[in-house]
Amino acid sequence: MSTTTTSTSLSADRVLHGVPAVAGVQYAPVIRPGARPRPEAFPGDDVAEADRPVEVRRLKAAAAAVAERLRERAAHATGVASEVLATTATLAQDRAWLGDAEKRINGGAPAPRAVAGAVDKIADALAKAGDLMAERVTDLRDIRDRVIAEVSGLPEPGVPVPDRPSVLCAEDLAPVDTAGLDPALVVALATSLGGPTSHTAIIARQLGIPCVVAVGGLDEVPAGVMVMVDGGLGTVTVAPDDATASAAVAASRRDAEAARSWIGPGATADGHAVAILANVQDGAAARAAAETAAEGVGLFRTELCFLNRDSEPSVDEQARIYAEVLEAFDPSAKVVVRTLDAGSDKPLKFAGHADEANPALGVRGIRISQIDPGILTRQLQGIADAAARTGTAPWVMAPMIATAAEAQAFAAEVRSFGLAPGVMIEVPAAALLADRILAHVDFLSIGTNDLTQYTMAADRMSADLATLTDPWQPAVLSLVATAARAGAAAGKPVGVCGEAAADPALACVLVGLGVSSLSAAAAAVAAVGSKLSQVTLAQCRAAAEAALGASSAADARTAALGALADGE
Question: Whole-model pTM above 0.85?
């Protein structure tokens, strides 16, 4: 597509500010997603009663076609992208909106109007629910547009394929769109909505391209205008000086080259060991991570084999899936398996979830075992069987642990299968009581995405609250420090597996707080390891102290960067 420069009312060299999501600098013309079908443009006359069954069949066929395309894309993707696509495929045939749309058709509405009304009704309800449920609004509206396009015989909406490297700017991006991006052509992302732990940011990190979210004024920047995206500073500079922008990109590329030459193992410049691990979702992602300098897996998300299923996978099927991940690394490598983290925005069809007024604070993670204890028991059996088949000794941790009693019960069941138990620190209560929890488990792993959201009482998908959901928030770092101190006192490891571990500068701060391992998307492993290798433990501790003493996330970032630079 053409990227000819378009005139803009924005002044040249104007800097727009957002929230950093993925570090790096790129300079390229803006592209924007193509126009989506406008539901109001297809009002249509009411459908005659005799034709309504045919219209219902057209609706279901369109939804099935959209779902099948998404499933095909999921099959050719890996990691988070595969999970996002598979989840969205299920959403395309969700009984809630489809049933409502069918009722509307039976009342006379043509399919496009019925789809728009049904989806918008549910999306509005989810938006009001806030928190993790609001994350589904973008997905639902993307499904709405795709189904309307399909039933109307229009091209499938989505992100255009540029004819030169470009910066994709949008109000928001559907996870389906970001999951299929070519990082050679879409070299950076910027959105006016979203947060630092949104699907857009997570997939950008997996692709290794700079990303800034919640950018004020971004919607005023038209396609074709040259912009410089700095994912580390969280800025988008409109029509910058060419020489200045090119120099910034060159410096970023030099840092990237240095990172690519890093071969591990993880350690600071003065030899303080820090394990650098990878987050994975399946065997393909684990094999890709094994090609990097990652020393193992710090977070194996097991949800992929449970989601979009009408029935629970058998123990043998689970064991085969888990074994693929365990086989990707040397048997002596550390692999941390997280038990099923479903519920809230990732419901299980077979678990008997009841509707909840506030799902993000409801039955999710380890709490699912309250509904059906057998789900956890069968999963642990699958993990133990996979360990026996592969001759490995995986560590196993539970999500959403909130009390020492929960940790004790989980640890006892994990040990009964001969596995090493740990828990995730995602709930502030767990961080505050980390010393008591460590009396029962062998390790802790801090999930900074949820820990930040719950600590700051802020929906991580809200652009208005994006500065609150920044993992640089001093309150969040204080809770990390509390957990790390408890680990040091107990002589047990405390890692970080949230997206914060993928930020090279923040990784240094986490090490300074006492974290013993960092687990990030495979694409971020080299950058994190390279940055750590350039600083001493004393610098990391100074950066951590500076960040803890700050009054805001932005001040914490600035103070930490200054402390890290002082020692260079």
Answer: no
> Which residue in 305, 497, 508, 540 is the catalytic one?
497
- Known catalytic residue at 17: no
* pLDDT tens readout for residues 117-154: 898 888 877 666 554 445 577 788 888 988 998 988 88
Question: Which DSSP string corresponds to 462-515?
Answer: -GGGTTTT-TT-HHHHHHHHHHHHHHHHHT--EEE-SGGGGSHHHHHHHHHHT-
Q: Where are the beta strands (DSSP E) in 125-274?
A: 166-170, 186-191, 211-213, 226-230, 235-238
Q: Which of 199, 305, 440, 540 is catalytic?
A: 199
**Is 353 annotated as catalytic?**
no
> Which tokens is 410 given?
């989980």
| SS3 state of residue 351 | coil
Task: Give the type of residue at 554.
Answer: A
Tokens found for residue 489: 């006192």
**How many angstroms separate the CA atoms of 112 and 539, rounded?**
59
Q: Which residues pair with 423 in a beta bridge?
A: 398, 444
What are phi and psi for residue 164, nearest 5 degrees? -155, 160
HSE-up of residue 325 (Cα within 13 Å, Cβ side): 33
**Residue 534 C-alpha from the chain's centroid:** 27
Instruction: Evaluate the CA torsion angle 190, 196, 200, 204 in order and state its sign.
Output: positive
The Cα angle at residue 258 between residues 285 and 336, in degrees rounded to 5: 30
